Amino acid sequence: MKAMNNNQEIKALADNLWVYFEPKIKAMLSSGVSFYRAQITAAAANDRITVQRPFDDTEISLPYVSSAAELPVGSQVTVLVLGSSSNAVVLGNGTLSNL
After folding, report:
1. What is the pLDDT of residue 50?
2. DSSP 8-state symbol, 82
3. Nearest partner of 64 among 83, 84, 33, 43, judged by Cα
4. CA-CA-CA-CA dihedral for 7, 9, 15, 17, to nearest 10
């Protein structure tokens, strides 16, 4: 029966440590680089292209690289995110070589 109490104590300690470390880990990861695929839902206008992620009803208007300017609605693109979602850019055909 003692081992069960030790396991419960270790789990309680781990849970308490996670409450402390989780916000710190999220803050560190928020400055990273990530990307996702999206579909163009509105053509380029006013230096922005509107895209929508798969399985998401929200449309996002983002800046884009020059090679994406003529992409038609329905095109698949890659969105590069530098840190937070407010620092994102649409890449033309989804390759980093277009930068």
Report:
1. 95
2. E
3. 43
4. -120
Tokens 């680089």 found at? 33
Neighbours of 71 (CB within 10 A): 18
Strands across the sheet containing 76-82: 59-62, 48-52, 33-45, 76-82, 88-91
Give dist(CA 90, CA 76) in Å, integer. 10
CA distances from 82 to 10, 39, 41, 44, 87 (A): 37, 19, 22, 21, 5
H helices of the chain, in order, are: 2-29
pLDDT in tens, 47-64: 999 999 989 999 999 999
Nearest Cα to 76, choosing from 39, 35, 41, 36? Answer: 39
**pTM recorded for the entire structure:** 0.62
Q: Which residues of the chain have pLDDT under 50?
A: 1, 98-99
∠ CA 18-20-25, rounded to 5°:
75
